[in-house]
TrEMBL record:
It comes from Agitococcus lubricus. Residues 34-53 bind DNA. The keyword Iron-sulfur does not apply. Keywords: DNA-binding. Residues 11-71 form the HTH tetR-type domain. This is TetR family transcriptional regulator. GO terms for molecular function: DNA binding. InterPro entries: Homeodomain-like_sf, HTH-type_Tx_Regulator, HTH_TetR.
Length: 203
């Protein structure tokens, strides 16, 4: 970002540009979007846009940062409720909350995740998101001591994060998925629940 906002009005301008970036992506796609499109949607001149962002890619980076930070807020906000639930209900609750979040604001984040792998974006934010998810899963395990019986807890924890949350993100990014969301969440729940039950039997 060229010019860091110091006042509320400037921050509102930056937010408007980022919001316009999401809207333009929905309307025109990644390659079709231009800074002119974004400026027009934000209701500002292209010159004003360039005071804050050097180019379209810088706006995409800001969009990505916002996406990840809001995802982190989502997971942290729902951690307390998650800890109260059994493993199956907890998985379904978390994935349903993720789905609702992706669908809000006319599905702007759904459109975004369809293009995110095409963006040349630094991986730091995704690493941060995965770290937050891993920490949330560890809190869940500590709140449910029976899960400590699961062998190779670290690798299984990685699977819970990447095989669950990121599978839903990938599923939701597909225009015409081959299965329903309910089938996906049931399958993920079945796999993890079976893993836990097997560990308890062995123990």
């Amino acid at each position: 970002m060229r010019k860091k906002p110091q006042q509320q009005r400037a921050q509102m301008m930056v937010n408007a540009i980022i919001d316009a970036g999401f809207i333009s992506l929905m309307r025109h796609g990644k390659e079709g979007t231009t800074t002119r499109h974004i400026a027009d949607i934000a209701g500002i001149s292209v010159g004003s846009l360039y005071q804050y962002f050097a180019d379209k890619e810088a706006i995409y980076q800001a969009m990505h940062n916002q996406f990840v930070q809001e995802a982190i807020v989502l997971f942290k906000h729902n951690t307390a409720e998650l800890l109260r639930l059994d493993i199956r209900a907890g998985i379904r609750f978390l994935l349903q909350e993720l789905r609702l979040w992706l669908e809000q604001n006319n599905g702007r984040y759904l459109y975004y995740v369809r293009y995110v792998l095409q963006f040349d974006i630094a991986p730091n934010e995704i690493d941060l998101l995965e770290s937050v998810l891993m920490d949330m899963c560890m809190q869940y395990i500590m709140s449910h001591p029976q899960l400590m019986k699961v062998p190779n807890i670290s690798s299984n924890l990685w699977f819970m994060v990447n095989g669950g949350v990121f599978a839903v993100i990938r599923f939701m990014s597909q225009p015409n998925p081959k299965i329903s969301f309910e089938q996906l969440t049931e399958s993920i729940s079945d796999i993890i629940e079976a893993m836990v039950k097997q560990a308890n039997v062995v123990a």
